[in-house]
């Protein structure tokens, strides 16, 4: 087996809802002298995100930072989405910050998911700030992000 073959298997685990198996395969790669790449991490993080597991994607982001694999927008978006689904707005904002620190460009998916997490957490100030970042960055505020921003402000009084 090589990285490409394991990427395919981990992607299949993602599509099949087998996040634990995807994580196990990723964890076993170094023992077998196989080096995970960005695609490997993206598939494993996405598998965890789809299973509503928010902690494992953050652990995988840390592991990725220690490896030679470079995170991209897909990597961060899956991690932010996992935090959003778990209503973990603080963690979502930490991932947004990490995204900025690694000079990966914020996009509508990352900011929309972070706004949604803030809305669920009732922190309208953060949701409003993220919406203004989108506006100033000329990123189109999609319907979901727009509605989440309005909902967060409504909940905040």
Topology:
Elements: H1 3-15, H2 19-28, H3 38-50, H4 55-66, H5 73-85, H6 89-101, H7 108-121, H8 124-136, H9 143-156
Question: Can you walk through the features of this model?
Answer:
Helix content is 73%, strand content 0%. The chain contains nine helices and no strands. It has helices spanning 3-15, 19-28, 38-50, 55-66, 73-85, 89-101, 108-121, 124-136, 143-156. The relative contact order is 0.10.
Average pLDDT reading: 89
Q: Which class do the helix and strand fractions yield?
A: mainly alpha
In whole angstroms, the N-to-C terminal distance is 56 Å
Query: Can you tell me the overall shape?
Result: elongated
Strand content: under 5%
CA-based gyration radius: 16 Å
Number of strands: 0
């Amino acid at each position: 087996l090589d990285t490409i073959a394991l990427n395919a298997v981990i992607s299949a685990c993602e599509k099949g809802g087998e996040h634990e198996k995807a994580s196990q395969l990723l964890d076993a790669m170094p023992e077998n002298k196989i080096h995970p790449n960005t695609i490997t991490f993206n598939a494993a993080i996405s598998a965890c995100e789809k299973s509503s597991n928010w902690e494992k994607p953050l652990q995988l982001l840390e592991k990725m930072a220690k490896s030679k694999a470079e995170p991209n927008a897909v990597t961060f978006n899956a991690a932010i989405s996992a935090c959003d689904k778990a209503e973990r707005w603080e963690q979502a904002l930490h991932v947004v910050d990490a995204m900025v620190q690694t000079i990966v460009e914020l996009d509508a998916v990352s900011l929309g998911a972070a706004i949604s997490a803030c809305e669920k957490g009732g922190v309208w100030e953060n949701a409003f700030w993220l919406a203004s970042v989108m506006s100033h960055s000329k990123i189109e505020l999609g319907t979901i992000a727009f509605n989440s921003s309005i909902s967060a402000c409504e909940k905040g009084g």
